[in-house]
Design goal:
Helices cover 65% and strands 9% of the residues. It has 184 residues and is mainly alpha-helical. The radius of gyration is 20 Å and the shape is elongated.
């Protein structure tokens, strides 16, 4: 399927933002062992400090021994792969990938309240990069939910404007002996 580039961009932009943010944290903080740019401010807002080093160095930055920033990079990579499977895959792949994409984004959404509770309530310190990842996950989930429940079909959204309203070819007619109508 050939996807409309602008519409496809709407789906991938939050994943790219989240992937960029999580990759910066992973590369600078964990690999180079450097502080993150613009991540320590001396002032507080409503008792909340901005200090990525405190958040990333806390014991809450891993679950069962898995570093949350490595998991974040993996989450956004899988998310992008699923988007491209939905946009460009066969009809059979689309059906499976679309269901997995929604479930995958729901998993991302489910962990955000825990992460925000750790930052705002327990540590009373936020990490700008983590907050960008949280918003990316939330907005991303909102987008996919909109397509599922309002648009009813993500392919309609992705299709070039000239093909919207036309039935998608699935080759079922050819395999069942029925004639498959040619596109108009």
């Amino acid at each position: 399927m050939k996807a409309n580039p602008l519409k496809l961009l709407i789906l991938v932009v939050m994943s790219i933002v989240g992937l960029t943010s999580s990759s910066i944290v992973l590369y600078l903080y964990y690999i180079l062992k450097e502080g993150l740019p613009a991540c320590t401010l001396p002032q507080t807002f409503l008792g909340i400090r901005i200090n990525c080093n405190d958040v990333l160095g806390s014991p809450y930055n891993s679950i069962y021994g898995f570093n949350l920033d490595v998991l974040a990079v993996s989450y956004f990579i899988v998310n992008l792969a699923l988007i491209f499977m939905v946009a460009f895959g066969s009809d059979r792949l689309y059906d499976r990938a679309f269901k997995v994409l929604f479930a995958w984004r729901f998993v991302g959404l489910a962990i955000v309240p825990y992460l925000m509770t750790v930052e705002f309530v327990i540590l009373r310190t936020i990490c700008i990069y983590c907050t960008i990842m949280h918003f990316s996950i939330l907005i991303d989930f909102g987008i996919i939910t909109y397509f599922i429940f309002y648009k009813k079909n993500i392919r309609t959204f992705l299709a070039p404007s000239s093909t919207v309203g036309r039935p998608m070819s699935d080759d079922l007619g050819a395999r069942s002996g029925q004639e498959v109508p040619a596109p108009r």
